[in-house]
Amino acid sequence: AMKINQDVVLRGKKVTLVPYTPAHVPRYHEWMQSEELQRLTASEPLSLEQEYEMQRSWRDDADKCTFIVLDSERWPEQSEENSMVGDVNLFLTNAEDPTVGEIEIMIAEPNCRGRGFGKEATLLMMAYGVRKLGITKFEAKIGQENEASICMFKKLHFKEVAVNSIFQEVTLRLDVSDQERQWLLEQTNHVEEKSYAELKQPAGVLDT
């Protein structure tokens, strides 16, 4: 089951990935009121209650893995809610082939875009998928107008494989050869993996 990542923190240079918890929902819900984000993520606005439901399903579903993206400069000095910049998701969409992962990245905070946050968050998630989930093929489906995102995935060696003019989206794909795997692990060799529960414990609590 995808609860595999519920105690995982992946700390990179620019971003830190943490599990999506109920504490993140209000801020996430606020983001998703933005018409621009709804368009870019092809999603409908949900009520706060529905967003909590969604978070629970994310946590419990066996075919989804999600992290909230935090700004490494802000967290842990500032609260997680104040450090949130977006999210990154991996779906196992192919029942016949569990080695295929569909990846999604959203940098919701406008002032955090174009700063390499999305790229690092995507690399962290991909390396995690390869190392821990046995993923060997990645797919990304992106709205045709979202040029920044398409361009970023191409920089990460994805190739455009299909265009769906009805949904106006582009499908990009990356097969993780030994060479790609090596590259991915080199790109993420600075990443520290930590326990979320331990990081959330204030100092001194463990002594009691």
UniProtKB/TrEMBL annotation:
The keyword Acetylation does not apply. It catalyses: N-terminal L-methionyl-[tubulin] + acetyl-CoA = N-terminal N(alpha)-acetyl-L-methionyl-[tubulin] + CoA + H(+). Residues 15-159 form the N-acetyltransferase domain. Its EC number is 2.3.1.308. It is an enzyme of class 2 (transferase). GO terms for molecular function: tubulin N-terminal-methionine acetyltransferase activity. It holds the Pfam family Acetyltransf_3. It comes from the Eukaryota. Keywords: Acyltransferase, Transferase. Belongs to the acetyltransferase family. GNAT subfamily. N-acetyltransferase that mediates the acetylation of the N-terminal residues of alpha- and beta-tubulin. This is Alpha/beta-tubulin-N-acetyltransferase 9. The gene is Nat9.
